[in-house]
Amino acid sequence: MKYMNANKVLPGKLLMEIQKYVQGETIYIPKTETQYQKWGTSSGGRQLLDLRNATIRNSFISGSSIQQLAEEYHLSTETIKKIVYTSKK
C-alpha cells in the first residue's frame, strides 16, 4: 500500500467533501470486491498451502496418524486436525 496525495488524485469537490470528515489523517480506501484477491493468489503462496493441505489429507486417509503428520510437517496437532477434519470447499 503506497501513500498518495489526495490533491493529486481526487477532484476538488470530492476532496472538500472528505475534508468534512477527515483532515490531515491517513485513510485507507479498500478495493472493490471485484478487484479483491484472496491472500496468496498473486504470489502463489495460497496454491502451495492448498497443495500441502491436500497432501496432508491424503496421508491421513492413507493411515498416517495426526501425531506423525504434525512431526513430518512441523505443525501442531491442532493445526493438523483442522486440516484433516475441515472439508475443502
Quick synopsis:
The chain has 89 residues and is mostly helical.
What does this structure look like?
This protein has 89 residues and is mainly alpha-helical. The chain has a domain at 41-89. Helix content is 52%, strand content 0%. The protein has helices spanning 6-9, 12-19, 45-61, 66-73, 77-85. The two termini are 30 Å apart.
Note the main attributes of this structure.
mainly alpha; rod-shaped; 89 residues; 52% helix
**Secondary structural class:** mainly alpha
What is the N-to-C succession of helices and strands?
A: HHHHH
- How large is the radius of gyration? 23 Å
Low-confidence stretches: none
How many angstroms separate the termini? 30 Å
* Percent of residues in β-strands: under 5%
- Average pLDDT for all residues: 89
Largest sheet: none
Number of strands: 0
Give the topology, please:
Layout lengths: L5 H4 L2 H8 L25 H17 L4 H8 L3 H9 L4
Helix pairs in contact: 3-5, 4-5
